[in-house]
Amino acid sequence: MERGIVCIDLGGTSMKAGFMSQSGILGEQCILPVHETLEEIFCEIDQYVKK
């Protein structure tokens, strides 16, 4: 598995996630559902990271 950084953009109407490699190349990107509580948001991010 390649090491890199998970990037999260948490907006008011959508939440976007992406993976950036150590060399700075942006790879997989997706739009995640926005939830009402922080716990639900962290759960959604955790599921994305585990993919």
The first-to-last residue Cα distance is: 11 Å
Strand order within the widest beta sheet: 1-2-3
Residue fraction in strands: 35-45%
Q: What is the chain-wise order of helices and strands?
A: EEEH
Major beta-sheet overview: 3 strands, antiparallel
- The residue-averaged pLDDT reads 88
Keywords:
alpha+beta, 1 helix, three-stranded antiparallel beta sheet, 25% helix, ROK family protein, 51 residues
Summarize the structure in words:
With 51 residues, the protein is α+β, with helices and mostly antiparallel strands. The chain has one domain. It is built from one helix and three strands, in the order E-E-E-H. The protein has one helix spanning 38-50; strands at residues 4-10, 15-21, 26-32. The radius of gyration is 11 Å and the shape is elongated. The N and C termini lie close together (11 Å). 0% of the residues are buried.
List strands and helices in order, with pairings:
Elements: E1 4-10, E2 15-21, E3 26-32, H1 38-50
Antiparallel strand pairs: 1-2, 2-3
Structure described in brief:
This protein has one helix spanning 38-50, and strands at 4-10, 15-21, 26-32.
